[in-house]
Amino acid sequence: MAQKFIRFYSTPPASIFVEFLVKSLGFSTKEAISISTKVTPWRLRNYEPHLLLDLFEKVGMDKSQIKTLISSSPQLLCHHVHGNLKPKIEALQDLGLSGSDLVTLITKGDFLKRGLHTIIKPSLDYLKVLLGSHDSVARVVKREPRLLSKNLPKLIPPNISLLQNLGFSRADIDTVFNRRPRFLLNNPKWLERAVEQLEKNFHMPRGSRMFLHGIEVLVSLDELKLERKLYIFRSFGWSDSDICVMVQRLPYCLNTSEAKIRNTLKFFMMELGYESSYLASHASLLKFSLEKRVMLRNEILKILKEKQLVKGGPCLYTVVKCSESQFLEKYVLPFKEKMPELYGLYMKTRS
């Protein structure tokens, strides 16, 4: 007669759990108690703390990274290490990921709740075929950790087909996906809606080099958010024609927060007296950091013009568009000895 073995789980007392967090990971008692309250008691049956630490150390995490991981995801302490956690982490290691990369993926993603063979591996295999190399997959996954919690073989192909039917090449689609991986996870109906908006509302021709960028922007905005942002432009006197020109030139202006749109328009239009038509046709002005770039460079340019130290009277748009090194070399360093306060202003604001 075969002997039956029954495994009994005993839930470790809270004090033992807290003691482990304090002694092994360096948490304060207060922090450890707080973490312990976030762990579902019945899940402590899989409590294998030392196996967990051993696994994390072997994949290149130091103690501070492990603390970060446990602080943000206390339930990790209850994952069955060999049967659940280890195989999933090994799948990421196969991409060359370790240490801080794994911390980011685990804390920002939701893939540990997904099945290894039903979601994680099929999605990784699909990405390898789609992108062509482990390095490319690693870059995309690091950029968007939530990819591995989605059923990519089901979600992505319909969107690729839709975009190809609109005339976009795979190279163009891959470029957008690498830049914004969530782009291809949307419902195809959202992409169709974005296409319709670009053509009907913003009069952007489908052959425009900005059309795919416009789709990328609009699929991330629901109708209410979009209308609120357009209302701000209109409240500053922008016509629908001005808004169309801006979107046609740089649709990413619509990704800017409502507060930044309002503050930027207030500075350019109310303080500097710029017309909406000029800003629409020089849309990149609206995307730069207002405090650390636009206002700083405007102040430096104003000082240089007052002292008649720049020839040809460059406009603010020209100065703002300069790269950091070009601006420093052309408008700051040449006057460092003659006007040390100018250099001081620049360095103080940039720090």
TrEMBL record:
What Pfam families does this protein's entry cite? mTERF
Task: Specify the superkingdom.
Answer: Eukaryota
Keyword terms, alphabetized = Transcription, Transcription regulation, Transcription termination, Transit peptide
Q: Give me any GO biological process, just one.
A: DNA-templated transcription termination
> Could you cite one Gene Ontology molecular function of this protein?
nucleic acid binding
Family statement drawn from the similarity comment of this UniProt entry: Belongs to the mTERF family.
| UniProt xrefs under PANTHER family | CGI-12 PROTEIN-RELATED, MITOCHONDRIAL TRANSCRIPTION TERMINATION FACTOR
Q: What is this protein called?
A: Uncharacterized protein
> Which species is this record about?
Anisodus acutangulus
